[in-house]
Amino acid sequence: MSEKPVDSLSEAEAASELARLAEEIAGHDLRYHAEDAPTISDADYDALRRRNLAIEQRFPQLVREDSPSRSVGAAVSEKFGKVTHVVPMLSLDNAFADEDVSEFVGRIRRFLRLGANEPVVITAEPKIDGLSLSIRYENGRLVTAATRGDGQVGENVTANARTIADIPNVLKGDFPDVVEVRGEVYMSHADFAELNRRNEKAGKPIFANPRNAAAGSLRQLDTSITASRPLRFFAYAWGEVSEMPADTQMGMVDAFRSYGFKTNPLMKVFDSVEGLLSQYRMIEANRATLGYDIDGVVYKVDRLDLQQRLGFVSRSPRWAIAHKFPAEKATTLLTGIDIQVGRTGSLTPVARLQPVTVGGVVVTNATLHNEDYIKGIGNSGQPIREGRDIRVGDTVIVQRAGDVIPQILDVIMEKRPADAQPYLFPTRCPACDSHAVREEGEVVRRCTGGLICPAQAVERLRHFVSRNAFDIEGLGEKQIEFFFQSQDPALHVGSPADIFTLKRRQEASLTKLENIDGFGATSARKLFAAIDDRRQVEFSRFLFALGIRHIGETNAKRLARHYINFDAFRAAGTAAVMPEGKGDKGNAAWQELTGVNGIGGIVAEAVVEFFAEEHNRQVLDALLAEVTPLDEERIGDVSSPVSGKTVVFTGSLEKMSRDEAKAMAEKLGAKVAGSVSKKTDLVVAGPGAGSKLKLASELGIEVIDEDGWFALVKAG
Ligand code: IVH
């Protein structure tokens, strides 16, 4: 059940894990804030956020636009009404180096299978550092305006938006019946300085930066306050549109201008990476003269039909990317180091800093990753910071990339106090006092308390019974805590199976739950009934409840949909062999596992590791002796001629790349397999198809070509 230590993640693994964490945490935020139905304990939730942060601190360049660390406080507040975005408000992936930009363009070309001489036109425009807003017009009249919120549900700030001069209340010219214009609310440097001057005089709080000022001004219950604040708006995107006024990104932005919106004058189209980069440098060079904050340049594929084909990965489009400006730095004093214990027992050091402003944001703490990082030792044992260690009392260089909690880059040795002592990393868990050890080759020190460590054990059980897991009525966090603490063998619950043996253990003992304070006959009977009710449970819930690293609800659902049956999944997870080194692709079970839509190497590895661990198998077997996971429904939500079917693509495809074919089929509810078997429903064969095609005809499986595929899916 071990999670991969942050320090041993490769950059690619870190990126994919950050994407997963963003999605998982956003899901929890949504359930907590919008649906008032959290499915995770606060401690678990914090652990997810901490891991996200730890990864970001090691890889500040990977910080995502939709990172949970950016959205602290962005959760939809109770004081505004909620607006569900019909078209979700997504975020952008980041590029930092020039190579990331060429890779972005290369990925697009490959996905679309563009020939070497076919240009792909891409727009470049400043990335405004404000907050995004979606404004809906019906028959040309502003009807609602909503903040992004968590991307799915935002705050209703209609009355406030109406007071912003750059936002028309009534559209001009020729507009569609329904159009949602999206863009950025921001405050200019001059207006920000003036507002702070006024506030200071009046003894009111001053804002740290224009972005906070813009957000604070827009999210006012008293709209006269919003009206008194000089907010501005650039239009650059859209949500629902009844009739598209243009077929390019540039055309859409031109249309918004014709409706009466401000659009950014620095937006231009290019057909080469060099062109994009020259615009990036031009904008960066002029950054200080713009009069408002920007934090990078956004590139977007211009043709909307190509955007459509490219689609999305997780919560960001494949057709756009944000090329960020480099991080900002500052120096401050390290005043202390605290240790936090994660759900898997990992001990994470956190730096406490004397507050310092880095790029307009006050910074007070930072994760120090692990004990080696503090000592000046890198992932593979090599010295970092030329071997300089970090000590309490040191003056440190803090870097903040994007708008996240920072990392400590280095120590200024000249300023080290003469009496500063090397930091001694604790060898005992601060939660349970068990020994905290580092296994061979591991960078993370972990509490060995396992189930006796309250920080870990109770968390796992709580997760097991949480709403989207087993969801047993009458068995909440309080009761779990009680059963866990109980020393009575008839009452103690230390692992999931114990929940299901509770009734039998009671019957065989003198201890009766109904005689215990807080229970009583009725609630005891109800609890046992509720537990019995869960002896059959959906596969995806069961899987989610196991608390395997990286298997949140979404991934549990994905795996359940793919494997249908828990035994099949377990067999696959047990049989899968991870690839060793370059060129190795792992065995067939591994390939199938990583071929499941949305399941990458990190998740697959966690599955394999879970089943490889004897203790997990014991816990699982004990549980399976009590509980039966039900087979997942075969058909997906999507109804299309291929939904629920297993499709194999083989041979060379000419009109779409393999990735596009797969994405398309999965979007239509099909399952895409890598090899032909009796379970295959359809084979799409391009020129040069060989053994798979042969096997398909031997098995009597339907075979069509690429044109046949397009005809089939269009017909749906
Ligand atoms: S396009 C599907 N263009 O960046 C992507 N976003 O991570 C739609 N932003 O939340 C966004 N300037 O608040 C786009 N010129 C620009 C932008 C921009 C700022 C912000 C926006 C969004 C975030 C995306």
From TrEMBL:
Entry's EC annotation: 6.5.1.2
The terms under GO molecular function for this entry are:
DNA binding; DNA ligase (NAD+) activity; metal ion binding
> What residues bind NAD(+), as annotated?
D42, A43, D44, Y45, D46, S91, L92, E125, R148, E184, K300, K324
Show the coiled coil region(s): none
- Gene Ontology BP, a term: DNA replication
At the top level of its lineage, which domain of life is listed? Bacteria
The protein's required cofactor(s) are namely:
Mg(2+); Mn(2+)
* Location of the active site: K127 (n6-amp-lysine intermediate)
Role description:
DNA ligase that catalyzes the formation of phosphodiester linkages between 5'-phosphoryl and 3'-hydroxyl groups in double-stranded DNA using NAD as a coenzyme and as the energy source for the reaction. It is essential for DNA replication and repair of damaged DNA.
Q: Which family does it belong to?
A: Belongs to the NAD-dependent DNA ligase family. LigA subfamily.
Under which name does UniProt file this protein?
DNA ligase
Q: What is the lineage of its organism?
A: Bacteria, Pseudomonadati, Pseudomonadota, Alphaproteobacteria, Hyphomicrobiales
